[in-house]
Amino acid sequence: MRSSTWLLALAVAALVGCAPTRQKAITIKGSDTMVILGQRWAESYMASHPGAVIQVTGGGSGTGIAALINGTTDICQSSRAMKDEEKQQAAAKLGTPPVEVVVARDGLSIYVADSNPVRELTLAQIKAIYTGQVTNWKDVGGSDAAITVYGRENNSGTYVYFKEHVLEGADFAAIVQTLPGTAAVVNAVSQDAKGIGYGGAAYATGVRDLAVRKDATSEAVLPTLENMNSGSYPIARSLYYYLATPGNEAVMDFIAFALSDSGQKLVTEVGYFPAQ
């Protein structure tokens, strides 16, 4: 899947390599995780392309995918891959399948407050906390205190990824407090010594990342570039741009910028990891 994604990305980059730069309005909608990154790309692109207008809004990956299918956005930014049925809906509505481009990578972070004595958890322990099987920090090496669990709304790509890859499809417990964005999760955890949350690595300000083990015998690792590149961080994911057609030169030129050395440098500055 990853190889095919990169083939598409390279195909887009090759096509735009010969395309003239157009000053044209572009709309980008979707992942809240990617809003900061999308805004940084847009600001940098517009600074070097006077007259260009790029509008970046969030609302969640599900919102962006729906907008792409309905033809109300040029680019959908998504923190999860589109599902096969969503791609089929887009193809039926737009006439061609959407083009998928991996534009960055993320180490999905598990946040706790700085004062929390717990430094690491296994994937099984994280799943047990979010499914309600473990409700006290003392059961995972912490203090005798009830765990406050924070999560995301179900239109979030981060929510979907977490449910599929960490909870292995299990339902979130009723005790999970649903918040509207990663910034809200980070803010809640930073003020709650008993809290735990999850979200993009770029948002981990004022909180501390937990090291994560694949299982009880694995090394505990943090979401760093080295661990992302080695594949040792167990909940790494791709961040995507989807577009309805590769025919819009302005959109393709902007995506080529996002994949360029300058664009990928912004990925690192924001706090995510280069696409390649």
UniProtKB/TrEMBL annotation:
This is Phosphate-binding protein. One of its GO terms (biological process) is phosphate ion transport. Involved in the system for phosphate transport across the cytoplasmic membrane. Keywords: Phosphate transport, Signal, Transport. NCBIfam families: ptsS_2. Pfam families: PBP_like_2. Residues 1-24 form the signal peptide. GO terms for molecular function: phosphate ion binding. Residues 21-261 form the PBP domain. InterPro entries: PBP_domain, Phos-bd, Phosphate_ABC_transporter. Belongs to the PstS family. PROSITE patterns: PROKAR_LIPOPROTEIN. It comes from Eiseniibacteriota bacterium.
